[in-house]
Amino acid sequence: xxxxxxxxxxxxxxxxxxxxxxxxxxxxxxxxxxxxxxxxxxxxxxxxxxxxxxxxxxxxxxxxxxxxxxxxxxxxxxxxxxxxxxxxxxxxxxxxxxxxxxxxxxxxxxxxxxxxxxxxxxxxxxx
Length: 127
Prior knowledge:
The chain has 127 residues and is mainly α. The chain is built from 2 helices and no strands.
């Protein structure tokens, strides 16, 4: 009876060993599948971060280009306004009341000054 009892114990131990080995094998397969899924997700996230980094760098370059363009346009606008003020001062400085009294002299002076003003305005806006 002791031999039979030992046999049952040995069979139970072998069965427990097989069950434990199967459990570890199943755990290993599940873990490897989880690792593969996590590696794939990591790759996807790494690509997303790289794309976002490139996008941010491009946005910084675009912002610098816009800042330069705004500065250029602002400087150009300031120069145009200064030229406009100068031309307006020239028009204001016309002395329309003096002259020799010859017929058409005042009209000729006004036309000449106006032509010069128009030429200066065209030159200022043609930049």
